[in-house]
Structures are given as C-alpha cells and as structure tokens.
Amino acid sequence: MHHALELAKIAGDAGEVPVGAVIIDSNGNLLAEGENRKERDTDPTAHAEVIALRAAAKSLQSWRLHQCTLYVTLEPCPMCAGAIVQARLGTLVYGVDDTKTGAIRTVINIPASPASNHRLQVVGGILESACRQQLQAWFATRRRQRN
C-alpha cells in the first residue's frame, strides 16, 4: 500500500485525483501498477485500478488474475469493481472507503451482487488514515485554487 500511496502522489501532483494501485502475484512480486490518468490521457476509463489490471493481464498473458492481489488507496468505483470481478481477481486490499461512489462495500457491493459471477476476498482500511489524508489534502488544495 505504501507504493500505491506513492503512485497516488504522482497522480495528484499531475492534477489527477490522487489514487494509486499495485498488483502483486502470489509470491509477493510486483506485477503491475497504475495511477489515475483520466486528465492526462483524456480517457474516462484511465483509473488506477483499470491501468493496473490491464498491465497485470498483459504481464501474465492471461486476463484471469485469481492468484493476484490488488492494493488501491481508495475503494473502487462501479466501473473498477466490475473490471475487478471480470478479471477474477483473488484479493482486493483498499485504503479508504469512498462514500460517494464506493462499489465494494460503502455505497453498493458489486462483488456480492447476484450479477457477479466471482466472489472476491476484500480487506479494507489498510493505511486508511494516510490514504484519507492524501485525498482530503488534495481536494482542499483544489478548492483553494478555484477560489
């Protein structure tokens, strides 16, 4: 999660919402990483999780990531939760709940939905304070810049 926080900082410094993600394999090896890139790539799907999932699948030459763990600083949105389910990810570890668009536990629970064909192990609240502080500080700075 520390590396995901570093990636989130890079995203925030580039004007993106500061979210970072890393994927490790069953041996703890780093397979892929991603940070939000929606603004830089002008791509609405360029969320940290999606970028990391794509890179991990490419690295493994398989879209099935059942032996992998994704660490992400913010609870995934509906799009990312759907991609995580489609990737058959083994475990999701996230930092802070997203009270607006969280689609793992907070607002809706896509992995536990009857529409989901995959059950996902989820661990939330890892480095929660650091993840929350990073997001809150970034948004506070953005609000000050607009005024």
Description:
This protein is an alpha/beta fold and 147 residues long. It has one domain: 3-Layer(aba) Sandwich (Cytidine Deaminase, domain 2). The protein contains 5 helices and 5 strands. The chain has a 5-stranded mixed β-sheet. Helix 1 runs parallel beside helix 5 (128-146). The chain is globular, with a radius of gyration of 14 Å. The protein starts with a helix and ends with a helix. Its EC number is 3.5.4.33. It is an enzyme of class 3 (hydrolase). The active site is at residue 49. It catalyses: adenosine(34) in tRNA + H2O + H(+) = inosine(34) in tRNA + NH4(+). Residues 1-123 form the CMP/dCMP-type deaminase domain.
Low-pLDDT residue spans: none
Distance between the termini: 33 Å
Strand content: 15-25%
Q: Can you tell me the CATH topology? A: Cytidine Deaminase, domain 2
Q: Mean of residue pLDDT?
A: 96
- Assign an overall shape: globular
Count up the helices.
5
List the helices and strands and how they pair.
Elements: H1 2-13, E1 20-24, E2 30-35, H2 38-41, H3 48-60, E3 69-74, H4 78-86, E4 91-96, E5 121-124, H5 128-146
Parallel strand pairs: 3-4, 4-5
Antiparallel strand pairs: 1-2, 1-3
Helix pairs in contact: 1-5
Characteristics of this structure?
147 residues, alpha/beta, Cytidine Deaminase, domain 2, five-stranded mixed beta sheet, 5 helices, globular
Summarize this structure briefly.
The protein is α/β, with parallel strands linked by helices and 147 residues long.
